[in-house]
Amino acid sequence: MKIVFYGSGNMASAIFTGLIESNTVKGEDIYLTNRSDIEELKRLNSTLNTQYSYDDVELLSNADFVFLAVKPHDFDSLVERIQPHHNANNKFVSMMAGVPINQIKTKLQTSNPVARIMPNTNAHVQQSVTGISFSDNFEESDKQLLFDLLDAFGTSIEVEEDSLHDVTAITGSGPAFLYYMYEQYINAANQLGLSHEDTDIAVRKLIIGTARMLENSELSLDQLRENITSKGGTTKAGLDALAKHPIEEIFVDCLNEALNRSKELGK
Ligand SMILES: NC(=O)C1=CN([C@@H]2O[C@H](COP(=O)(O)OP(=O)(O)OC[C@H]3O[C@@H](n4cnc5c(N)ncnc54)[C@H](O)[C@@H]3O)[C@@H](O)[C@H]2O)C=CC1
Ligand SMILES: O=C(O)[C@@H]1CCC=N1
Protein backbone atom coordinates (compact mmCIF):
# COMPACT_ATOMS: atom_id res chain seq x y z
CA MET A 1 0.00 0.00 0.00
CA LYS A 2 1.36 3.42 -0.98
CA ILE A 3 0.42 6.29 1.31
CA VAL A 4 1.21 9.93 0.55
CA PHE A 5 1.14 12.83 2.99
CA TYR A 6 0.80 16.31 1.53
CA GLY A 7 2.06 18.17 4.61
CA SER A 8 4.51 16.76 7.14
CA GLY A 9 3.80 19.06 10.08
CA ASN A 10 2.57 18.46 13.63
CA MET A 11 -0.51 16.36 12.88
CA ALA A 12 0.79 14.42 9.89
CA SER A 13 4.03 13.51 11.66
CA ALA A 14 2.09 12.23 14.69
CA ILE A 15 0.14 9.96 12.33
CA PHE A 16 2.91 8.61 10.11
CA THR A 17 5.19 8.08 13.12
CA GLY A 18 2.37 6.08 14.77
CA LEU A 19 1.82 4.03 11.59
CA ILE A 20 5.51 3.18 11.31
CA GLU A 21 6.27 2.60 15.00
CA SER A 22 3.28 0.25 15.32
CA ASN A 23 4.64 -1.71 12.31
CA THR A 24 1.36 -1.11 10.46
CA VAL A 25 3.05 0.45 7.43
CA LYS A 26 6.72 0.39 6.41
CA GLY A 27 8.49 3.73 6.19
CA GLU A 28 9.40 2.99 2.58
CA ASP A 29 5.67 2.83 1.68
CA ILE A 30 5.04 6.32 3.02
CA TYR A 31 5.80 9.28 0.76
CA LEU A 32 6.10 12.72 2.29
CA THR A 33 6.05 16.17 0.82
CA ASN A 34 5.65 19.65 2.26
CA ARG A 35 5.72 23.23 1.06
CA SER A 36 9.51 23.61 0.79
CA ASP A 37 11.34 22.27 3.86
CA ILE A 38 13.50 19.58 2.22
CA GLU A 39 15.80 19.37 5.27
CA GLU A 40 12.83 18.18 7.36
CA LEU A 41 11.99 15.53 4.74
CA LYS A 42 15.62 14.36 4.71
CA ARG A 43 15.63 14.18 8.51
CA LEU A 44 12.45 12.06 8.46
CA ASN A 45 13.99 9.85 5.77
CA SER A 46 17.00 9.16 7.97
CA THR A 47 14.98 8.50 11.15
CA LEU A 48 11.86 6.75 9.79
CA ASN A 49 13.02 5.61 6.36
CA THR A 50 10.12 7.50 4.72
CA GLN A 51 10.37 8.51 1.06
CA TYR A 52 10.06 12.11 -0.06
CA SER A 53 9.48 14.03 -3.25
CA TYR A 54 8.23 17.32 -4.66
CA ASP A 55 7.26 15.64 -7.94
CA ASP A 56 3.46 15.31 -7.84
CA VAL A 57 3.33 12.79 -10.69
CA GLU A 58 5.72 10.53 -8.76
CA LEU A 59 3.81 11.09 -5.51
CA LEU A 60 0.33 10.41 -6.87
CA SER A 61 1.15 7.56 -9.23
CA ASN A 62 -0.20 4.30 -7.67
CA ALA A 63 -0.95 6.12 -4.41
CA ASP A 64 -3.75 4.38 -2.51
CA PHE A 65 -4.38 6.94 0.23
CA VAL A 66 -3.45 10.59 -0.19
CA PHE A 67 -3.58 12.48 3.11
CA LEU A 68 -4.33 16.19 2.84
CA ALA A 69 -2.45 17.47 5.89
CA VAL A 70 -2.08 21.20 5.21
CA LYS A 71 -3.79 24.07 7.01
CA PRO A 72 -7.21 24.93 5.54
CA HIS A 73 -5.86 28.26 4.23
CA ASP A 74 -3.15 26.37 2.27
CA PHE A 75 -5.65 24.10 0.53
CA ASP A 76 -5.77 26.24 -2.64
CA SER A 77 -2.00 25.97 -3.05
CA LEU A 78 -2.31 22.22 -2.60
CA VAL A 79 -5.06 21.99 -5.23
CA GLU A 80 -2.64 23.45 -7.79
CA ARG A 81 -0.27 20.55 -7.10
CA ILE A 82 -2.75 17.69 -6.91
CA GLN A 83 -5.57 18.52 -9.31
CA PRO A 84 -3.67 18.10 -12.60
CA HIS A 85 -1.98 14.83 -11.64
CA HIS A 86 -4.37 12.76 -9.53
CA ASN A 87 -5.63 9.43 -10.84
CA ALA A 88 -8.48 6.98 -10.24
CA ASN A 89 -6.47 4.96 -7.68
CA ASN A 90 -6.14 7.92 -5.26
CA LYS A 91 -8.44 7.92 -2.22
CA PHE A 92 -8.20 11.30 -0.48
CA VAL A 93 -8.10 11.56 3.32
CA SER A 94 -8.39 15.13 4.52
CA MET A 95 -7.58 16.21 8.06
CA MET A 96 -8.21 19.89 7.34
CA ALA A 97 -10.49 21.29 10.03
CA GLY A 98 -13.86 22.45 8.75
CA VAL A 99 -13.34 21.91 5.01
CA PRO A 100 -16.31 19.84 3.71
CA ILE A 101 -16.05 16.82 1.43
CA ASN A 102 -18.03 18.52 -1.35
CA GLN A 103 -15.62 21.48 -1.31
CA ILE A 104 -12.64 19.11 -1.54
CA LYS A 105 -14.24 17.30 -4.50
CA THR A 106 -15.15 20.54 -6.24
CA LYS A 107 -11.73 22.15 -5.85
CA LEU A 108 -9.83 19.02 -6.85
CA GLN A 109 -12.34 18.47 -9.70
CA THR A 110 -12.53 14.83 -8.74
CA SER A 111 -15.12 12.14 -8.24
CA ASN A 112 -12.58 9.98 -6.37
CA PRO A 113 -13.54 8.78 -2.87
CA VAL A 114 -12.85 11.30 -0.11
CA ALA A 115 -12.76 10.71 3.65
CA ARG A 116 -12.41 13.36 6.29
CA ILE A 117 -10.69 12.56 9.56
CA MET A 118 -10.32 14.63 12.71
CA PRO A 119 -7.47 13.15 14.76
CA ASN A 120 -5.52 14.71 17.59
CA THR A 121 -1.82 14.91 18.44
CA ASN A 122 -2.16 12.11 20.99
CA ALA A 123 -1.52 10.00 17.87
CA HIS A 124 2.15 10.44 18.87
CA VAL A 125 1.48 7.95 21.69
CA GLN A 126 -1.09 5.87 19.74
CA GLN A 127 -3.94 7.47 21.74
CA SER A 128 -5.67 9.69 19.18
CA VAL A 129 -9.45 9.78 19.16
CA THR A 130 -10.18 10.15 15.46
CA GLY A 131 -13.57 11.09 14.01
CA ILE A 132 -14.14 9.96 10.42
CA SER A 133 -16.71 10.55 7.66
CA PHE A 134 -16.76 9.15 4.14
CA SER A 135 -18.07 10.27 0.78
CA ASP A 136 -20.88 8.04 -0.54
CA ASN A 137 -18.60 6.34 -3.09
CA PHE A 138 -16.02 5.09 -0.56
CA GLU A 139 -15.88 1.29 -1.00
CA GLU A 140 -16.40 -0.85 2.13
CA SER A 141 -13.07 -2.62 1.60
CA ASP A 142 -11.25 0.73 1.40
CA LYS A 143 -13.08 1.95 4.52
CA GLN A 144 -11.80 -1.11 6.35
CA LEU A 145 -8.24 -0.46 5.19
CA LEU A 146 -8.50 3.10 6.45
CA PHE A 147 -9.99 2.03 9.79
CA ASP A 148 -7.02 -0.34 10.18
CA LEU A 149 -4.65 2.59 9.62
CA LEU A 150 -6.51 4.75 12.17
CA ASP A 151 -6.44 1.92 14.73
CA ALA A 152 -2.64 2.01 14.58
CA PHE A 153 -2.57 5.42 16.23
CA GLY A 154 -5.64 5.29 18.49
CA THR A 155 -9.36 4.70 18.28
CA SER A 156 -11.79 5.91 15.62
CA ILE A 157 -15.45 6.81 15.54
CA GLU A 158 -17.49 7.16 12.35
CA VAL A 159 -19.80 10.16 12.51
CA GLU A 160 -22.03 12.15 10.15
CA GLU A 161 -19.91 14.74 8.39
CA ASP A 162 -21.65 17.61 10.16
CA SER A 163 -20.70 16.13 13.54
CA LEU A 164 -17.00 16.46 12.69
CA HIS A 165 -17.31 20.06 13.91
CA ASP A 166 -18.14 18.66 17.38
CA VAL A 167 -15.28 16.16 17.20
CA THR A 168 -12.91 18.97 16.19
CA ALA A 169 -13.86 21.04 19.22
CA ILE A 170 -14.00 18.21 21.76
CA THR A 171 -11.04 16.00 20.85
CA GLY A 172 -9.24 17.63 17.88
CA SER A 173 -8.48 20.80 19.82
CA GLY A 174 -9.11 19.04 23.14
CA PRO A 175 -5.49 18.29 24.08
CA ALA A 176 -4.71 22.02 23.86
CA PHE A 177 -7.60 22.88 26.18
CA LEU A 178 -6.43 20.31 28.72
CA TYR A 179 -2.79 21.46 28.43
CA TYR A 180 -3.95 25.03 29.07
CA MET A 181 -5.84 23.90 32.15
CA TYR A 182 -2.81 22.01 33.44
CA GLU A 183 -0.64 25.09 32.83
CA GLN A 184 -2.99 27.14 35.05
CA TYR A 185 -2.84 24.40 37.69
CA ILE A 186 0.97 24.48 37.61
CA ASN A 187 0.98 28.29 37.81
CA ALA A 188 -1.26 28.14 40.88
CA ALA A 189 0.78 25.32 42.44
CA ASN A 190 3.92 27.39 41.93
CA GLN A 191 2.49 29.95 44.34
CA LEU A 192 2.74 27.39 47.16
CA GLY A 193 5.97 26.37 48.85
CA LEU A 194 7.57 23.64 46.66
CA SER A 195 10.39 24.45 44.26
CA HIS A 196 9.20 25.01 40.69
CA GLU A 197 11.10 21.92 39.58
CA ASP A 198 9.41 19.70 42.18
CA THR A 199 6.02 21.23 41.37
CA ASP A 200 6.46 20.54 37.65
CA ILE A 201 7.41 16.91 38.23
CA ALA A 202 4.65 16.42 40.82
CA VAL A 203 1.91 17.84 38.60
CA ARG A 204 3.02 15.91 35.50
CA LYS A 205 2.92 12.69 37.53
CA LEU A 206 -0.44 13.74 38.96
CA ILE A 207 -1.89 14.16 35.46
CA ILE A 208 -0.44 10.88 34.18
CA GLY A 209 -1.59 8.96 37.26
CA THR A 210 -5.09 10.43 37.08
CA ALA A 211 -5.34 9.47 33.38
CA ARG A 212 -4.24 5.92 34.24
CA MET A 213 -6.96 5.76 36.90
CA LEU A 214 -9.51 6.80 34.26
CA GLU A 215 -8.19 4.07 31.99
CA ASN A 216 -8.04 1.29 34.55
CA SER A 217 -10.85 1.97 37.02
CA GLU A 218 -14.44 0.92 36.46
CA LEU A 219 -15.68 3.71 38.71
CA SER A 220 -17.43 6.80 37.34
CA LEU A 221 -15.70 10.18 37.39
CA ASP A 222 -17.84 11.43 40.25
CA GLN A 223 -17.22 8.25 42.26
CA LEU A 224 -13.47 8.59 41.76
CA ARG A 225 -13.76 12.17 42.98
CA GLU A 226 -15.92 11.17 45.95
CA ASN A 227 -13.29 8.60 46.99
CA ILE A 228 -10.78 11.41 47.56
CA THR A 229 -13.18 13.75 49.33
CA SER A 230 -13.17 13.24 53.11
CA LYS A 231 -15.96 14.81 55.09
CA GLY A 232 -14.72 18.18 56.36
CA GLY A 233 -11.35 17.59 54.70
CA THR A 234 -9.00 19.42 52.37
CA THR A 235 -10.51 18.18 49.10
CA LYS A 236 -13.98 19.36 50.11
CA ALA A 237 -12.56 22.78 50.93
CA GLY A 238 -10.85 23.02 47.54
CA LEU A 239 -13.89 21.72 45.63
CA ASP A 240 -16.17 24.22 47.39
CA ALA A 241 -13.83 27.00 46.27
CA LEU A 242 -13.94 25.66 42.68
CA ALA A 243 -17.74 25.49 42.71
CA LYS A 244 -17.90 29.25 43.29
CA HIS A 245 -16.57 29.73 39.73
CA PRO A 246 -18.57 29.05 36.52
CA ILE A 247 -16.31 26.24 35.33
CA GLU A 248 -18.89 24.42 33.20
CA GLU A 249 -19.87 27.73 31.59
CA ILE A 250 -16.22 28.40 30.79
CA PHE A 251 -15.95 25.08 28.92
CA VAL A 252 -19.30 25.57 27.17
CA ASP A 253 -17.92 28.87 25.87
CA CYS A 254 -14.58 27.31 24.90
CA LEU A 255 -16.14 24.40 22.97
CA ASN A 256 -18.74 26.57 21.24
CA GLU A 257 -16.09 29.03 20.05
CA ALA A 258 -13.98 26.14 18.70
CA LEU A 259 -17.02 24.61 17.01
CA ASN A 260 -18.05 27.93 15.43
CA ARG A 261 -14.52 28.45 14.13
CA SER A 262 -14.58 24.96 12.58
CA LYS A 263 -17.76 25.96 10.71
CA GLU A 264 -16.17 29.23 9.56
CA LEU A 265 -13.06 27.45 8.23
CA GLY A 266 -15.18 25.58 5.68
CA LYS A 267 -16.61 28.75 4.16
N1 LIG B 1 -2.28 20.12 15.02
C1 LIG B 1 -3.36 19.48 15.45
O1 LIG B 1 -3.50 19.18 16.64
C2 LIG B 1 -4.43 19.08 14.48
C3 LIG B 1 -4.44 19.54 13.18
N2 LIG B 1 -5.44 19.16 12.33
C4 LIG B 1 -5.43 19.64 10.95
O2 LIG B 1 -4.24 19.17 10.34
C5 LIG B 1 -3.83 20.09 9.35
C6 LIG B 1 -2.35 20.38 9.54
O3 LIG B 1 -2.16 20.98 10.81
P1 LIG B 1 -0.72 20.98 11.49
O4 LIG B 1 -0.03 19.69 11.21
O5 LIG B 1 -0.93 21.41 12.88
O6 LIG B 1 0.01 22.15 10.64
P2 LIG B 1 1.57 22.38 10.41
O7 LIG B 1 1.70 23.85 10.13
O8 LIG B 1 2.36 21.78 11.51
O9 LIG B 1 1.87 21.58 9.07
C7 LIG B 1 1.37 21.97 7.82
C8 LIG B 1 2.16 21.29 6.73
O10 LIG B 1 1.59 21.63 5.47
C9 LIG B 1 2.66 21.86 4.55
N3 LIG B 1 2.15 22.61 3.38
C10 LIG B 1 1.64 23.86 3.31
N4 LIG B 1 1.32 24.16 2.04
C11 LIG B 1 1.64 23.06 1.29
C12 LIG B 1 1.56 22.72 -0.08
N5 LIG B 1 1.05 23.59 -0.98
N6 LIG B 1 1.97 21.51 -0.50
C13 LIG B 1 2.45 20.60 0.38
N7 LIG B 1 2.56 20.85 1.71
C14 LIG B 1 2.16 22.07 2.13
C15 LIG B 1 3.69 22.59 5.39
O11 LIG B 1 4.96 22.61 4.75
C16 LIG B 1 3.64 21.72 6.66
O12 LIG B 1 4.44 20.57 6.49
C17 LIG B 1 -4.70 21.33 9.49
O13 LIG B 1 -5.63 21.39 8.43
C18 LIG B 1 -5.41 21.15 10.81
O14 LIG B 1 -6.73 21.65 10.76
C19 LIG B 1 -6.42 18.28 12.69
C20 LIG B 1 -6.45 17.78 13.96
C21 LIG B 1 -5.51 18.17 14.97
O1 LIG C 1 -6.51 24.46 15.69
C1 LIG C 1 -6.93 23.89 14.67
O2 LIG C 1 -7.60 24.50 13.83
C2 LIG C 1 -6.61 22.43 14.45
C3 LIG C 1 -7.86 21.60 14.34
C4 LIG C 1 -7.94 20.80 15.60
C5 LIG C 1 -6.65 21.03 16.25
N1 LIG C 1 -5.92 21.89 15.59
Automatic annotation (TrEMBL):
Residues 161-265 form the Pyrroline-5-carboxylate reductase dimerisation domain. It is found in: Cytoplasm. Its EC number is 1.5.1.2. GO terms for cellular component: cytoplasm. Keywords: Amino-acid biosynthesis, Cytoplasm, NADP, Oxidoreductase, Proline biosynthesis. Gene3D superfamilies: NAD(P)-binding Rossmann-like Domain, ProC C-terminal domain-like. GO terms for biological process: L-proline biosynthetic process. SUPFAM superfamilies: 6-phosphogluconate dehydrogenase C-terminal domain-like, NAD(P)-binding Rossmann-fold domains. It holds the Pfam family P5CR_dimer. GO terms for molecular function: pyrroline-5-carboxylate reductase activity. NADP(+) binds at residues 69-72. Pathway: Amino-acid biosynthesis; L-proline biosynthesis; L-proline from L-glutamate 5-semialdehyde: step 1/1. InterPro entries: 6-PGluconate_DH-like_C_sf, NAD(P)-bd_dom_sf, P5C_Rdtase_cat_N, P5CR_dimer, Pyrroline-COOH_reductase. It catalyses: L-proline + NAD(+) = (S)-1-pyrroline-5-carboxylate + NADH + 2 H(+); L-proline + NADP(+) = (S)-1-pyrroline-5-carboxylate + NADPH + 2 H(+). Residues 2-98 form the Pyrroline-5-carboxylate reductase catalytic N-terminal domain. NCBIfam families: proC. Belongs to the pyrroline-5-carboxylate reductase family. Catalyzes the reduction of 1-pyrroline-5-carboxylate (PCA) to L-proline. This is Pyrroline-5-carboxylate reductase. The gene is proC.
